[in-house]
Amino acid sequence: MLETIKTIIAEKLSTLTGVELSIAKSAVKVPEQTKHGDFTVPVMQLRLKDIANGSNPVQLAQTIADRFVADEAIASASASGPYINFQIRCEALARHVLPSIHELQDTYGQSSVGEGRRVVVDFSSPNIAKPFHVGHLRSTIIGNFVYKLHKLQGWDAVAMNYLGDWGTQYGLLAIGYAEAGGSEEKLLADPIMHLFEVYVAINKLAEADPLVKERARAHFKKMEDGDPEALEQWQRFRDLSIAKYEEMYSRLDIHFDVYSGESQVSSGMTQAMQMLRDAGLLDIHNEAQVIRHDDPSLGNMVVEKSEGTSTYLLRDIGAVIERYDTYRFDKMIYVVGSEQSCHLKRVFKAVELLGLPCSASASLQHVGFGKVHGMSTRHGNAVFLDQLLAESARNMLAVMQGNPEKYASLENPAHTANVLGQSCVYVQDMSAKRNNGYQFEWSRMLSFRGSTGAYLQYTHARLCSLARSYREADADADTENSRLQFDSVDYSLLSERLAKDIVILVAQYPDILASAMQTLEPCTVVQYLFALCHAVSAAWEELWVNGQPQHLALARMAMYQAARIVLANGLVLLGIPPLERM
After folding, report:
1. Rounded distance between C-alpha atoms, residue 541 and residue 502, angstroms
2. Strands, E assignment, 279-345
3. Of 268, 294, 270, which is closest to residue 281 (Cα–Cα)?
4. R_g of the chain, CA atoms, integer Å
5. Catalytically annotated residues
6. Which helix (H) or strand (E) holds 172?
7. pLDDT tens track for 407-451
8. Residues 523 and 433: beta-carbon distance below 8 Å
């Protein structure tokens, strides 16, 4: 609906000034502060000939505002310096938007713009034999957001978990298991943690003795050559790791359509190597095979090491070939840390040099993110995700127990605490632009106060409580139907500025999703949800429902229920289950 109003304003401006409709529409903005109106137009952006001929933009703004005729959607136009500010009629917007939200419920905000197109989203991708730590969380929750967002926009989306399950580090793990305290008893008792301990121990030994890594490379060569004993041990470590990861994904309610891994790439890797040879793109550098290219910033693109083992680069090129053959995707997105930027640029460059069908810049995309500092599996100071979630849940439970009455009313306090803890961890991570890294701090992850996941959940739970009390007080409520009915709402009663703020915000949700699709920034949605919750919190103080005349209570309840639906939809998009009680 907001897009419709923008078009109405643009059409009127085009008629008044003669400017092209597309230019006029691009000039219509939503101001950061409501005191500047609901929409604003910087006159300079209309590119009028009068301005080019020396006319004063302040005077032009006043002239256009004076000539603007109000209608059922636009209440007024006024000039403020070189800007034209527009006030819209809340009744018209509410009459159009709120029934649509009530009808569409959890599908409100969805679009069909991606219909007929397929995207593969590669995210999470932990290395096997290492516990899931907080650093993996970023790829997992950002990738899940990107996947869900594309589905909401009509894309046929494939969620892929491409495990790091191949390479010299697994030769290192095998050497460590044999020489750095590997224990069958400990492996059976807690396999993933024991393998992590072995990995840390062997890395410390390798720092003092370079021959350890030599033996690791030799062991990995045996794996690539198909040595049965080496592969049997590797397969066992892999199976134990995947089982543990699946537990964690289930806890986070993360779904993958495909579990893959570097070890799964076979024919694509062979095909890639042959194509590189046939195209004359291979050179020898220090006895290793490298791709010839013209971009100095990419350095040596090694596809086969001097000892004959494949590289991460060759495996990823082969993976692109296999995935395109399987999915015929229109776009593939890699959700991995920004430190992998150079590697992915090399992959994309190789695909371009080979002239593969998916070589267009829009087809392969890296969605990067900053690093969580203060942890490293190599040195053993990682904070494991299950540890973080457990601590966060304990923290939330302690806060909840501070209100004995509310705590006693919860059917499952432990579940509520788990969801609250997860909400705080997720929202803290996704509140800022994803390329911003941060230092890991327990206090930051566990915060309950301020603009946090707990605040979003509190607002949602309070809106649910309002709906329950309204239903109990309404003698005409349909007790058999869980959805409130808003068939005869007088939207003219939503006349206050606080009501208008909420109506405009819920109307913006589809536009927020469209904007997020352009940047793939979760913070776009997070900051929008905070704005919506702040607007609701401000309205609580003045726009009451209980104890009000029936028609006024119904109109306000329609507004608050629409806010609840939009807030719930946004939380689900972020991967957070909305709580109805807390």
Report:
1. 14
2. 282-285, 288-291, 301-304, 331-335
3. 294
4. 29
5. 130, 133, 136
6. helix 168-179
7. 898 999 999 999 999 999 999 999 999 999 888 777 777 777 788
8. yes
Query: What would the two tokens of residue 345 be?
Result: 């640029």
Give the tokens for residue 471: 């239903």
Helix H or strand E segment including 120: strand 118-122
Name the 3-class secondary structure at 42.
strand
The pLDDT tens digits of the residues spanning 150-192 come to 999 999 999 999 988 888 888 999 999 988 888 888 888 888 8
C-alpha pair distances (Å), 266 with each of 350, 379, 430, 492? 18, 32, 36, 66
CA gap 72, 93 in Å, rounded:
10
**Three-state SS across 416-475?**
HHHHHHHHHHHHHHHCCCCCCCEECCHHHHCCCCCCCHHHHHHHHHHHHHHHHHHHHHCC
Phi-psi region of 182 (alpha: psi -120 to 50; beta: other; left: phi over 0): beta
Q: What angle do CA 553, 558, 559 make, to 5 degrees?
A: 100
Q: Dig out the tokens for 309 from the structure.
A: 């083992």
Separation of alpha carbons 410 and 398, rounded Å: 14
Nearest Cα to 13, choosing from 5, 54, 91? Answer: 5
